[in-house]
Design brief:
Rossmann fold; 6-stranded parallel β-sheet; 14 helices
Length: 367
């Protein structure tokens, strides 16, 4: 098959990681794969893509305009793909135009966000051949809010881009903890996410202000983004600079997963959280706000604790419960590991995509 993946920019987000992971996997499986981005570069731009993967940017220089895709239809027609997979909100806005330009191809929209959908995205949902949702909650939202037919949707959960590394030495976790100033008895709370308002890092910082200072906790926040500066100021004004550490962006977050003890996530908008499934695959129990799709990432009360959004006292109480009970952390962490490995296998994700592509390529359009 000839496969075209469309993404606006390879920023350091979960959808972008999934895009690169899938593109490389399709190419390694022997399919002629093209990954086209609107903006050039980005922290996730693959430095050495597989031989069967072509990476192209449409903007000659980075205009910082996420929505501008000059020559996209012309490039797509020149490739004449069997499958077009639109990834991210901006790329999905072009699904309708791509389907019209490529009537023989199966253009696939994807629902991977908890944010409101722009009008071009909503229009594309009514025209593209199929939609992939990354959670059952995302599928239900497509049906209820956007009138997409059930049979036009396939649910394929995110795959573990960063699963556990069995070859990692035990000393690596100790080295990472020492690097960021953690003492051996400290219990590390971790969140790995882009600093965007909807990720709600502010709530985690305010929650920490409610934790008992006598307890040996530290909060690590890994990532970068537009809300980072405001979060740094909040930490400083809250007097928590000795407890909360900003780790920056990590191309491979597995070392900090191994060095941490509890995953915490207060995002208001999700579809399926890459951070939560990766953290739990590393054996971290989670305390998370119940955004859309988050309940599908772990077994509530077994592998973690699900809290109503913006209920900071309850969130702090749940974190304290895990902070003070090492045996509970161990049991929940093992349940989390098993759940993540069972439900979010990267191989299963790749195979599910390729199986769907084969079916869509072999059948005429039903729209």
């Amino acid at each position: 098959m000839k496969i075209l993946l469309v993404q606006d920019y390879l920023r350091s987000g979960g959808t972008e990681r999934q895009t690169v992971s899938l593109a490389e996997a399709f190419a390694r499986a022997g399919h002629a794969t093209h990954l086209v981005t609107f903006r050039p570069g980005g922290p996730l731009s693959p430095p050495a893509p597989p031989a069967a993967l072509t990476v192209k940017s449409l903007q000659r220089r980075d205009t910082r305009l996420d929505w501008w895709a000059p020559g996209l239809r012309r490039y797509a027609i020149s490739i004449n793909p069997d499958i077009v997979l639109c990834m991210g909100r901006m790329a999905n806005g072009y699904g309708r135009a791509l389907q019209v330009a490529l009537p023989a191809a199966a253009v696939i929209s994807t629902m991977r966000t908890g944010k409101p959908l722009p009008l071009p995205f909503r229009r594309s949902l009514q025209v593209t051949r199929h939609v992939i949702a990354n959670s059952q909650a995302a599928k239900a939202h497509l049906i209820d809010a956007h009138a997409v037919a059930d049979e036009q949707i396939t649910v394929i959960p995110n795959g573990l881009v960063f699963g556990p590394d069995a070859a990692a030495p035990a000393s690596s976790a100790r080295d990472v903890r020492a690097k960021f100033g953690a003492k051996p008895a400290d219990v590390i709370l971790l969140d790995v996410a882009m600093f965007r308002p909807e990720k709600n890092h502010r709530a985690l910082i305010e929650m920490c202000a409610q934790l008992d200072p006598a307890l040996p906790w530290r909060l690590w926040l890994a990532g970068k983004g537009p809300a980072l500066g405001r979060c740094r100021k909040l930490v400083k004004s809250s007097g928590l600079a000795d407890r909360i550490t900003f780790l920056g962006w990590h191309a491979d977050p597995r070392p900090i997963y191994r060095a941490s003890d509890i995953a915490v996530h207060a995002s208001r908008r999700e579809s399926l959280s890459n951070f939560l499934i990766e953290a739990q695959a590393h054996g971290l129990p989670a305390v998370a706000a119940a955004a859309r799709g988050v309940d599908e990432t772990f077994v509530d009360q077994v592998s973690g604790l699900l809290i109503e959004p913006d209920r900071l006292p309850l969130f702090a109480a749940a974190v304290t419960h895990l902070l003070t009970d090492a045996e509970l952390r161990r049991r929940m962490g093992e349940a989390a590991r098993q759940h993540a490995e069972t439900h979010f296998s990267r191989d299963a994700q790749i195979n599910a995509h390729l199986d769907l592509f084969g079916k869509l390529s072999a059948s005429p359009s039903s729209r």
